[in-house]
Amino acid sequence: MCGIVGYIGERNCVPILINGLKRLEYRGYDSAGIGIIDNNKSIVVKNKGKVSLLEDKLEELNLYSNIGIGHTRWATHGIPNELNAHPHANEDNTIFLIHNGIIENYQVLKKGLINFGYKFKSETDSEVLVHLIDNFIKKGYDLTTSVQLALSEVEGTYGLAIVYSKEPDKIIAARKGSPLVVGIGDNENFIASDVSAILAHTKQVIYLEDGEIAVIKKDSFNATTVHNDEIEKEIHEITMTLDEIDRGGYAHFMLKEIMEQPETLRNSLRGRIIDDEGSSVLGGLTDVVNKLVNSKRIIITACGTSWHAGLVGEYMFEQFCRIPTEVEYASEFRYRNPIIEKDDAIFFISQSGETADTLAALKEAKMKGALVLGICNAVGSSIARETNAGVYTHAGPEIGVASTKAFTSQLTVLALITLLIARRKSLSRIDGKQIADELRLLPEKIEKILTLNDQIEVIAEEFKNSTNFLYLGRGYNFPVALEGALKLKEISYIHAEGYPAAEMKHGPIALIDENMPVVFIAPKDSTYEKIISNIQEVKARGGRTIAIASEDDNDIDQLVDYSIKIPNTIRMLTPILTVIPLQLLAYHIAVKKGLNVDQPRNLAKSVTVE
Ligand code: M6R
Q: Which of 126, 63, 77 is nearest to 98 (CA)?
């Protein structure tokens, strides 16, 4: 999704902006641009396509400036082209701005501005902002006041950075519903939509909150509301390193992130298991643990892969905590006026912590007085800050658009929360201890699964030209079937569907023929015999089959075309193991098809618009 980076200081901003934009590429974009001030003149350079094209253009121009802003755009209003790319400038080219988010009342504002004589160059909603600000400047206000007045007329969401060549000592930034962070340096300051864009320069940051407007000069920073009330802001220290967000020798971020899972799981578990008690300790939930244990219902709300993690969480919470649990798409929850009772606890799961639908659902639940809890990966993200309490997954930065290590760390945290609640209810110490012991063994078991990478690559070669796939699983592994299908479709563009295996005979079985590979998630658990019957049904209709099976299951080899054997664990934790071969299968198929694995078409890492 769109990215923002800005610089004001004593160095040439051009390479800083380009490097910042490269760091933001992983979010997904279709065009890029920068705006700078050179000798009191605004210069905007932009193009459709990659940041590297923009870099080539800029090299020829040989520009120098101490102030500038840069943007990667992911089209929402208007096709991806140079005119629609940001920055957008006013008619006399004195003001330019970049915008993440959506201006919902842009048509009304645009009509009004056209009546005042303004001419629009792009099809974007963002362009209204620059003319609206210009309109206030023409009435005699300074830039800061003009931005405040303009934003009080705007409905929608924004992360904004604005520069005015007649006030070249400042960048104005504003946030509502789209993340922005200010980086504090020595005689230089930064603005970014994501800390990774500025981490090479500073670790001191200030998070802007919704409704805040910041005036950033090279040696000062201050924040106000749209009504010009001063706001005190706190400086935070970032602990993430640049190494953590590099590819580390792997061909793709996705492969690196799949391979990192033994380590990320260790990080999710570190210091959180109490062995003697067969329980867990989660600092972020300490203040709410009693409320949580006594809650009458748990609702889990999320999108995409995080929603799949929520489905596994439902099985865990209901089996061990005996608390009725519902899992909702955040996009549905936010609009359907959900019934929320005073004893409900609502978890919001999000890797990025910035997903617009999940954030909106959270605000809705908070307004209705629910206990709102986060399970987030990105530290300091909006969801992490908006919730009453929560748990970080500690998977480290996930750059590949396809979520992998974030998913397994979400499942791990859900298992830890299950232990925390269930041990305070009916789970015995011995049973709790068994879960805790099995959790500790997972990283080694994942290491073992990762050694199957070559075998999985061979299977990928065999199936890379298939145009459809079916994924089937039962119980805890039904959500894994959904997740396996999502991984495949999002990076290989192969149509894939996940189903509870028993549902096959209610429809999907009509699709089975020799062109329909079916992936069965079939570890030896209480549903094993039933899955075997489903495999037989597919075989009888000529379907080709791949099974994710237990390492001691020799029988299954007689039945399926390919089997991928994984170590045993207790039922509730199997999804953390069974999903890994599915991540690798999707990865290798996409690579063999020559596709952009880390930045698949039309997708963004963090979906910060509706
Ligand atoms: O950052 P979040 O976990 O809130 O993101 C939710 C989804 O957008 C995300 O999981 C998406 O489905 C992934 N691309 C799946 O790999």
A: 126
pLDDT at 243: 67
**Which entry of 2, 13, 303, 376 is annotated as an active-site residue?**
2
How far, in Å, is the centroid of ligand 1 from the Cα of 175? 22
Phi and psi torsions of 468, nearest 5°: -140, 150
CATH of 2-243, one of 1.20.1250.20, 3.40.1190.10, 3.60.20.10, 3.40.50.10490: 3.60.20.10
The residue whose CA has the least distance to atom 8 of ligand 1 is 304
Strands of the sheet with 371-376, listed across from one edge:
325-329, 297-302, 344-350, 371-376, 389-392
| Residue of 257, 306, 327, 413 to test ligand 1 pocket, by largest number of atoms within 8 Å of CB | 306
218 tagged catalytic: no
Axis crossing angle, helix 106-115 with helix 127-138, rounded to the nearest 10: 40
For the chain, which residues make up each domain, given as ranges?
Answer: 2-243, 272-446, 451-598
3-state SS, residue 62? coil
Looking at residue 28, its pLDDT comes to 65
What is the block-wise mean pLDDT of the chain (610 residues), using blocks of 10 residues?
92 97 81 94 94 94 96 83 95 96 91 96 95 98 97 94 97 94 97 93 95 96 92 90 73 94 93 94 94 96 98 98 97 90 95 94 92 91 92 89 97 98 96 97 97 97 96 96 98 96 87 91 91 92 94 94 97 98 98 94 80
Cβ of residue 404 lying under 6 Å from some atom of ligand 1: no
SS (H, E, C) 78-104: CCCCCCCCCCEECCCCCEEEEEECCEC
Q: Alpha carbon of 369 to those of 341, 391, 548, 559: distances in Å?
A: 8, 20, 43, 53
Q: How far is the CA of 409 from the centre of ligand 1 (A)?
A: 14
pTM for the model: 0.77
13-24 vs 51-61: helix crossing angle, rounded to 10: 170
Residue 380's pLDDT is: 79
Q: What is the pLDDT of residue 1?
A: 62
Ligand 1, atom 14, residue with closest C-alpha: 402
Q: Is 170 a known active-site residue?
A: no
